[in-house]
Design a protein that fits this description.
Amino acid/polyamine transporter I, mainly alpha, about 75% helix, single chain, 18 helices, about 0% strand
Length: about 450
């Protein structure tokens, strides 16, 4: 091992696109149809909710892409927030991702994989957690060898997960027997599910994950140009996929049936369209989709830990800042976060943790979006800006508005979770003070 080794720039545009698309599209598009429709009240409103969530996310992606084009270093939000607001805020952004949000996401995705895996192969329920741990370790191994393999795995899983999405869209559009627009759900279902605002909130969570690409800027070829293209075009692909699958679903099934089926809507649709084999293939596609999403998380979050350790701002920094000489990957950082993911999987409810972490995640998103205005003021000519957000200042304002909506919703619906979320981030402050004092003494 050698700390002087450099990360390998193994992610070109195709792999970067696959990382954005593959990390966002996990299980949400397959299992959120019933809940979004129940909240929206009608298929027309539900489609608008999916489109609105996509537009808000695209505005967010464009805003971060502008910042990323000026700071092509591994670390993502940790680097962006630090450069704009100072080391303390940057550290807290990194701490949140490494200690809380990243492991919770890894644990949650692998847990869901384990549940679906034992259901598909009719194994005893007791094998769900071991299956989840094995899946997490498997993707960890792929990420511990040269990153061309994790890049290739991302391209493969993203391609495979897009096949059923395209099939569902085509089937719904050309063979569906219902009107996609204008269907309504019962008043009881709509009242109990929160309304149109909650529907948009659900889609925003389904769109989350696009920022992971920014964490690996140091491994992207020509990141100033590739990162903005991958984020923007990747999000456009995801928006088309989400709206397309929703439209196909509404064409294939009536609104009442979709709400009644809930999480089983897409599997039922695939079974009806392509038989029992089609339903099983859809389940396999979801498993592959989850592996692709898990790969994106493991590619991304350990790079934040690596960047913090490289700056001496994490315990055992020498260990976590090392890069394997042969593979050019930060293996210690990768496996530390996998262990944290396993602990959350075994000891807590990862789904609940990801919900709790959402408040601080979007809080740092807002800081980044505001940073677009700060950087523009510092560099009005755009000399150092390889990508400029179109329709400025409207786009970053829209991104801020969408994120504020998430924050307000979290405060209103899960105040205890918000308090826990802030507390976990605040714990990082004394850790930072201790580590920064050690650096000063050195």
């Amino acid at each position: 091992m050698d700390n002087k080794a450099q990360l390998n720039r193994g992610f070109g545009l195709t792999a970067s696109l696959a990382l954005v698309v593959g990390t966002i599209i996990g299980s949400g598009i397959f299992f959120k149809q019933g809940s979004v429709l129940a909240s929206a009240g009608s298929t027309t409103s539900a489609l608008i909710a999916w489109a609105a969530g996509g537009i808000l996310t695209l505005a967010s992606g464009m805003s971060v892409a502008e910042i990323g084009s000026q700071m092509a270093k591994t670390g993502g939000l940790y680097i962006y927030i630090e450069k704009i607001y100072g080391k303390v805020w940057g550290y807290l952004a990194g701490w949140m991702q490494v200690i809380f949000y990243g492991p919770a996401m890894m644990g949650s995705i692998s847990a869901y994989f384990g549940i679906l895996f034992v259901d598909l192969f009719q194994l005893p329920k007791m094998w769900a957690i071991p299956s989840a741990i094995i899946a997490l370790a498997f993707v960890g191994i792929i990420n511990s060898i040269p990153n061309r393999f994790s890049a290739g795995f991302q391209i493969l899983t993203t391609t495979l997960k897009m096949l059923p999405i395209v099939a569902l869209i085509i089937f719904g559009m050309f063979f569906g027997q219902h009107e996609a627009l204008g269907q309504t759900v019962t008043a009881v279902a709509h009242t109990n599910s929160g309304g149109f605002g909650v529907a948009i909130l659900a889609t925003l969570f389904a769109y989350d994950g696009w920022v992971t690409l920014a964490n690996i800027s140091g491994e992207i070829k020509n990141p100033q140009k590739v990162l903005p293209k991958a984020i923007v075009f990747g999000l456009i692909i995801v928006i088309i996929s989400y709206v397309g699958v929703s439209y196909g679903t509404y064409r294939s099934l009536d609104a009442a049936n979709i709400v009644a089926l809930g999480q089983n809507t897409t599997i039922h649709m695939a079974t009806s369209a392509f038989g029992v084999v089609g339903g099983r293939l859809m389940s396999v596609a979801v498993l592959i989709s989850l592996l692709g999403t898990l790969n994106g998380k493991i590619v991304s979050f350990p790079r934040v830990l690596f960047a913090m350790a490289r700056d001496g701002l994490f315990p055992f920094a020498k260990t976590f800042s090392k890069i394997n000489m042969r593979t050019k990957t930060p293996n210690a950082a990768i496996w530390f976060m996998i262990v944290l993911g396993d602990l959350m999987l075994l000891l807590t409810n990862p789904d609940r943790l990801t919900d709790i972490a959402m408040f601080t995640t979007f809080l740092f998103y807002i800081l980044a979006f505001v940073g677009v205005f700060i950087l523009r003021r510092k560099d009005p000519t755009g000399v150092n800006r390889a990508f400029s957000t179109p329709l400025y200042p409207f786009i970053p304002i829209l991104a801020i508005a969408g994120s504020l909506y998430v924050e307000i919703s979290e405060i209103l619906h899960d105040f205890s979770g918000v308090v826990i979320s802030i507390a976990v981030v605040a714990i990082g402050l004394p850790v930072y003070l201790v580590l920064s004092k050690r650096q000063i003494k050195k």
